[in-house]
Specification:
The chain is an all-alpha fold. It has four helices and no strands.
């Protein structure tokens, strides 16, 4: 989770990603950020977030995104 928080903090260091629950819906991150996150997650964790998982729910909080990463890691 700490590595994911590093990725997110590199995008927006002024946001508390440990408590924010509406990152995408609240406009904190946008579609360009999502693309960056997907690329960084692939590079650091070796998982690919396919189109079916690119939903606001999966990107609204660091916790939701971390659960997705764990799920994708378990499927490998």
């Amino acid at each position: 989770m700490n590595e994911l928080l590093e990725i997110l903090n590199e995008l927006h260091e002024d946001v508390d990603f440990t408590t924010s629950g509406a990152l995408f819906d609240g406009g904190i991150i946008d579609s360009f950020d999502v693309v960056t996150i997907i690329a960084e997650v692939h590079e650091r964790f070796g998982v690919t977030i396919s189109a079916e998982y690119i939903t606001p729910a999966n990107f609204n909080s660091a916790q939701a995104l971390w659960h997705l990463i764990e799920k994708l890691l378990a499927e490998e």
